[in-house]
Amino acid sequence: MSSKFWAELSNDYEKLFETEIGYDVIIYAGEESNIKEIHAHSNILCIRSKYFRTAFSDEWAEKKDGKFILKKPNILPNFLNIILRFIYCGNIELENLQGPDVLKLLLAADELDIQSLISHIQEYLIEHQTEFLHQNPTGILETVYQHEAFTDLWEFCLEKLCKEPKILFNSDKFINLKASLLELLLKRDDLNADEIEIWESLLKWCFAQLNMNDDPKKWSKEDISKIKGSLSRFVSLIRFYHIKPEDFFYRVHCYRDILPQDLIHDLLEFHIVPNIKPKTIKTPLRKSNLDFKLDSTLIDSEYIPLFASWIDRKNPSHYDKKIIPYDFKLLYRSGQNGFNATSFHRNCDNNGATIWIAKIQGSTQLIGGYNPLDWSGNCGWKSTTDSFLFNFTDIKNISTAKLGYVNNRGCAVSCYNDRGPSMGNLVCLNSNKWSYTGGYYYPNIDIPGNFTIEGFEVFQVIKK
């Protein structure tokens, strides 16, 4: 039978550290008026740290009167004491340290190559010091970036800042962020900000770096050249095609002199000419602009806060994209499930509330509606006060939306087995032929009278 007395062994080693019996190491920690002489035992330090094994090797060691001499001016005496106590007995208490001191302790542990302590301190910072990490995101990110061993903290900081980039963008020290770190952030698909906000944050950083006025009217040719040079490594990282037309006109186009002229031409063409496709590769919408992905070939996820707000009648205010109370699950896509009423009902019946969208052939128009009930049953009219129709006259521009809630609750939704999604005076006659008579069951929102659909999708609306 074996018995283990780890606690007793730990206590004995702690006493050895405190009494300094038989020490053969002298470490001078700190600098100037805050230098302290600390004693230790080389055998114990070498077993627990690769750094000390190297420091006490014949090639590096400095000895005096038979004792190893080390000078650590960049480690404060109290932090070295904490680390040595951990080396001797495996105990450490971080609760009494403030966030900045915990980070300094982590840097000291990294210099002395105490891997288990590095992991523990990172875990503690992540679990208990998130408020501190918010206080100086720029400085902390740069500090962590410089140390390869801080992988856990690096991933945490990146994830946190990508989820809440305003912590960084609104920081007074953001303008001091190193270009390499800014470039790394702008490459991220999960940077959770509107693209126009990212663009304007980049401009703020650039103008501060150059100590230059942000008014294009006051720039000289030399100023323009300097700004273009500073921005050159970042321009391709901005996803200009996902910036709304009005924001592009008022907040991007005014800076056209510092952007590549072919890019400006392509963006103008994209926003002005109907159904034009980008000439350059269109980068995808950043994934975490919303907390979910929308499985759609017709629209981007930016439509979802609008749909959710209409469902809950939040007009004119809308849900923040980070707080959407619904999930939208694809039930039916005409191109892959069959472009007919039978396929529509097979996929969409008995699934509760749905929202559907349809692209009108030969136009930029997108129409759709919300059915809070169900599409099942060959029963004619269904009654509700919560359904609505909508029309985007330009699919690329959500500000062109027109919305109409049901006027006649008794004729809100029409359910027939031989029809697709029909609501009041909007009728899906067969697979792709539709008709609309506005102004009675629903308000007139400028949907054409008779039209053909390129395709449509139906999403189940699920309360979170």
Number of helices: 18
Shape: elongated
Tell me how many strands there are. 14
Beta-strand proportion: 15-25%
Distance between the termini: 56 Å
Structural class designation: alpha+beta
How many discrete domains? 3
Return Rg in Å. Answer: 32 Å
Contiguous runs where pLDDT drops below 50 for at least 5 residues: none
Helicity level:
25-40%
> How many strands, what sense, and barrel or not for the largest sheet?
8 strands, antiparallel
Mean pLDDT: 88
Protein name: BTB domain-containing protein
Domain TLDc: 297-462
Pfam family, one: TLD
InterPro entries: BACK, BTB-POZ/Galectin-3-binding, BTB/POZ_dom, SKP1/BTB/POZ_sf, TLDc_dom
Short description:
Residues 297-462 form the TLDc domain. With 464 residues, the chain is α+β, with helices and mostly antiparallel strands. 38% of the residues lie in helices and 16% in strands.
Describe the structure.
The chain has 464 residues and is an alpha+beta fold. The protein folds into three domains: 91 residues, Potassium Channel Kv1.1, Chain A; 94 residues, no CATH class; 173 residues, no CATH class. 38% of the residues lie in helices and 16% in strands. The chain contains 18 helices and 14 strands. The strands form three sheets. Strands 5, 6, 7, 9, 10, 12, 13 and 14 form an eight-stranded antiparallel β-sheet that branches. Strands 2-1-4-3 form a four-stranded mixed β-sheet. Strands 8-11 form a two-stranded antiparallel sheet. A hairpin with an 8-residue loop joins strand 9 and strand 10. Helix 4 packs across helix 5, helix 5 runs antiparallel to helix 6 and helix 12 crosses helix 13. The longest helix is centred in the middle third of the chain and has 16 residues. The two termini are 56 Å apart. The model has no long low-confidence stretch (mean pLDDT 88). This is BTB domain-containing protein. It comes from Rhizophagus clarus. InterPro entries: BACK, BTB-POZ/Galectin-3-binding, BTB/POZ_dom, SKP1/BTB/POZ_sf, TLDc_dom.
